[in-house]
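Q: How would the structure tokens look for this protein?
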Amino acid sequence: MNKARQNPVNVIAAHGALILYTLIALFPVFVIVINSFKSRRDIFREPLALPDADSFSMIGYQTVLKQGDFFLYFQNSLIVTVCSLFFILLFGAMAAFALSEYRFKGNTLMGLYLALGIMIPIRIGTVAILDLMVQTGLVNTLFALILVYTAQGLPLAVFILSEFMRQVSEDLKNAGRIDGLSEYTIFFRLVLPLVRPAMATVAVFNMIPIWNDLWFPLILAPAEETKTLTLGSQVFIGQFVTDWNAVLSALSLAILPVMALYVIFSRQLIRGITSGAVK
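A: Here is the predicted structure in token form.
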């Protein structure tokens, strides 16, 4: 088995497949970014060509910053995403700690119930969610989006974090209890630092769909003051005329936070994904 893994042909084939997948995944991003710096005519004439002295244009970014309230949309998306991730990680870690640490009646049933949230899309309950938000007066508020995204991300967070928390040494936790530490102190000071790779993995897996979501902002928060970046970008898409310069520029700016998050947490993300394989 080790010899097969060390075979140069297998290594080259694996790296080749990974490089090919990376190129396929980054190709749409590359096309969006390079065309955001072109004039409308050159976007359709040579969509795959790099911008040159003749085709280079910043009209798309100028339109985004002037016509659309981009900074408000960006602020709303940032608030919703950061708050949702905070509650997902906090409540998900607490629930995962309880399920992995304590044995109580219904422990397994509770774990299976939470796992159903991974298999059943939350959009199935859109009508019921909208009705609930209307009754509670939360329509056209960012808090409505935060509640929905928190509920959407908790099942996956609990599933991933509970598996990691089962690997935390029992001796370490028992030593903390002998020293008089409370369960909250053990959780925050001893357990959480050891599962940071898993928390980074959960954060990245949840951040991307929250940041890119169009469905719930369109239904729950379509007002101008609560529009997210994805929904706000639709202002440049008309029924008869679409300002592709502005659309591509807005999408390019929307990509930046996701890329920044990956760069910051890439090491923790990879460690979280591969830790089970090298155990």
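The chain has a mean pLDDT of 84.

Residues 30 and 111 are 41 Å apart (CA to CA).

Upvote if useful.
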